[in-house]
Amino acid sequence: MNSSSAPDSTPLGYPASDFAREGRVAVDIRSLRVDYGDFVAVDDLTLAVPPGEILGIVGPNGAGKTSTFRVLATLMEPTHGDVFFGGVDIAEDPRQARRLMGYMPDLAPVPSDLKVWEFLDFYAAAYGLRDAHERRQRADRCLESVGLSNLRNNGCRELSRGQTQRVVLAKTLLHEPRVLILDEPASGLDPLARRDLRTALQSLAATGATILISSHILSELSEMCTSLCILNRGRLLAHGSVNEVRSQLGNTRRRLTLGLLSPPSEAADWLAQQPTISELRIESARISFEFTGDDEAQAELLEALVRRRVRLRTFEERRSSLEELLVDIATPPLLP
């Protein structure tokens, strides 16, 4: 292959995604269904994920996340449906799919009798890197990308839980996959290590890698991911940015708090008459209330307050967190 046709690379040595260059969807899931006997774990899941996306897959226990990941990782066959990585049918050509995909399960085992570099060298050889020098360079690059270059000569038994997670992530990156499937990668990481993980994944996504990630640390997902997919009882409920997910779930509630220089009583009387406002509270020179309008309605509300000569000192907005959204999803409605 001549230099003009070789893939571009980044400082990490990660090749630019062919999917992005060729305009392909990176992960294309079509009508995916997974049954366990009479139990439907994944029910008609259809989802298209473009190159460079970090997609957080979120849902309560039993939502179908693990079954979906196992199918994507070619560890189990679906009841029916199709999955494509950049146009490659993972059922028809699983070997090629595995070349394109890196899978990191939750709590992946690491041999305790190996050093970190030996563990990575073993997997690099399994991925087909025959040259020892190239394997060492690739291992060092992957360790650097997860912030563990200084531990390459440490024994795996000496690693903390968080360090082990990052070594497994480094192993997952060895063959430079185009699609990363990460199940609870932040499990056991302290806040600093989670920040380093977030930085590493965002750097990989910037090269065109596509990352599907599940995590119980929902605040991390909202900061790390470019989009979210909400599953419940095997069905896709919403897909998009955090705000788009809120809108699709019908949860546009936000709590607004106004800090006032003028007396709050007049503003409170007027606010109480607005149909988009409820649960209004007055605390000294502050008024807070639930607001159900959209962003445009919120802007019009603030403009109306200024026209009424309400002197605003501060304005705060608090929207439903991912945790609150999931509680709403997982809590069944009360029977009449």
What is the β-strand count?
A: 14
Classify the secondary structure makeup into a structural class.
alpha/beta
User: How many independent structural domains?
Assistant: 2
Order of helices and strands: HEEEHEEHEHHHEHEHEEHEHEEHEH
Defining key terms:
single chain, 336 residues, Rossmann fold, Alpha-Beta Plaits, six-stranded mixed beta sheet, four-stranded antiparallel beta sheet, 26% strand, elongated, disordered N terminus
What does the model show?
- This protein is α/β, with parallel strands linked by helices.
- It is built from 12 helices and 14 strands.
- The strands form 3 sheets. Strands 6-7-8-3-9-10 form a 6-stranded mixed sheet, sandwiched between helices. Strands 2-1-4-5 form a 4-stranded antiparallel sheet, covered by helices on one side. It has a 4-stranded antiparallel sheet with strand order 12-13-11-14, with helices on one face.
- A hairpin with a 2-residue loop joins strand 12 and strand 13.
- It starts with 17 loop residues before the first helix and ends in a 6-residue tail after the last helix.
- The model is unreliable at 1-14 (pLDDT under 50).
